Amino acid sequence: MNFIQLEKWKTFAQDSHFGHVHNVLQEIKRDPSQPIKRAYDSVVQGWPNQDIPPFNELRSQLHRFRAAQCPPIPRMVADVQIVGTWAESWDGTQRLQRLNNRRGVALFASPRELSALQQCETLFFDRTFRSTPAPYAQIVRIHGFYEDRWDDSAIRQDESVV
Length: 162
Prior knowledge:
It contains five helices and six strands.
């Protein structure tokens, strides 16, 4: 059996599974911001089950590969740069509206969500310290009542909001 070295981290046997694993790795490399299960599912969709290595057998290797594709975590807020797919939602929509490293603020929202938020009379602020990514100290989420609803489904349904 022949073996192929992929990057520095893993050697795969060159058998029928190698092509599938390689395709999953390419999908992760294309968009490392997506969950690895989503990358796996998008690649193996429609393939015969007997040819697909189970996700749980690949999970740790795929996590390590994705970690190698991600930019290093900045140590200070002043070093934060959010570019490319990291500034977009999973559907490719630009989400990063403002990045002010001097104040330590990154604002993620669509123009439609910002417009709807401006029309709300009641706003709710939710903050967390526990699940905040480094180097930030706090995440604040703002929700509002829009068309008598507090979730974002009203925003998505109303095409007149820009």
